[in-house]
Amino acid sequence: MTDTPFVSVIIVNYNGKYFLPACLDSLRNQTYPESSFEVIMSDNASTDGSVDFVKDIYPWVSVLENKSNLGFAAGNNVAIASSKGEFIVLLNNDTVPSPTWLDNLVKVAEDDPLAGIVTGRLHLFYDQLTLEFQSETFVPPGDGRELGIQLYSIASETPFGVTQYIEGFYGYEPSSFGGTFRWTKSRAVLGVPVPLGSESWNVALQVAAFRPENQPVPLQISLRNKKTDGSDLIFSGSVSGAEPQTVHIEIPAALRSQSFPVLQNTGSIVFRDGASRDRGTYVRNYEVLYEIDTGQYGSVEEVFSGCGANLLLSKNMLDEIGLFDDDFFMYYEDTDLSWRARLAGWKVLYAPDATVRHIHCGTTNEWSPFFLFLVERNRLAMVVKNGEIHQIVWTLSKYLGRTALNTIAALRAFVFHQPNRHELARWPRHHARVLKGLLGWMPALFRKRRQVQNSRKISPSMLKPWFVE
What's the whole-number average pLDDT of the chain? Predict the structure, then answer.
């Protein structure tokens, strides 16, 4: 590459010391010239020794010590303000980029002068093996479901690994022995993460099989063979009793070749109400699942928005449209920036060869009350800032309608003393918190909306085809 542009790689960190060695070591192994990029860690007042650790072990990393937890948006903004790069590249602290990652991001950005944002291919950290369970079933009186075995937990020597209940599972149920479990149907398919390395490893399954007469239930577990499109039997036995028991399965090293990388994000799709979903995921029975990567997203192409865990930003674009919105704190700040970039005439591109492995929610608590609050509030705020008037009205009306329905359901549950009444009451409280936060933010949002609309170069209606109904 001639006239190699200088790049600033920014990592926002909050108590992520555990993940930093793998991330920073991978940056030292990039094919991009070391003299052509800098690494800045923006630390949000970590208390786990992250700052001293990086200063001691990785002195080539510039460390910004923020006095408080600024969140993802402002944490990146302070680092961007001190950066020197022609391109700014954001990278999560719980990631490991491939050696050619930075080269490939920059190449896609340089090939198109309108590329304001380039997002890479994000894989879950561990590859996945597909296991198939087959068992005899019974139908409990008054239930109607055909129930196989109870699966409590899966351990496969993969810290922070993601297990996927792909098909053939009922929902979570509380157990009298503690914790939760899921019933299988007669056939169930499970995606199990594969530990790094080249050796054999152990998968431990905590299972039970309640039956009225306590009879043993035959169980077979097979591994999907991607070469033959068949399956290889790896366990044959039986399970008996309602009390959880552990089944240990030794997976030979040779079967590692049957695993696939798993997609987490290849750009984001956005729905009409501002809700977004990772390209490379799908929803089945209200459960988000990750696609195995068979090369189906292998071309450079436009996407609506990029993912902040693996994202290149043009400095020229940022000078024109501004940085992340500090008030978002975290979540949807990358989609908001992408939307503003598109309104200003910039493209958001996907770079399939800029691959990063990512520990999903390594340093955040997904589905916590704070997570849910920020996601909903920021989604609505983003639509108010950037959307067409009818889109804003429709989105807010939809949310108010959902709030009303959930409130009525909760009130009815208390009137009739339903056992789930306290669980149902969570949602009206959540909606009230979101609406209160949004209303207090409205004056600032309208000012920001005027700025966005006054500086846009295309009509908002031109983005309508991108929104999924």
Answer: 95
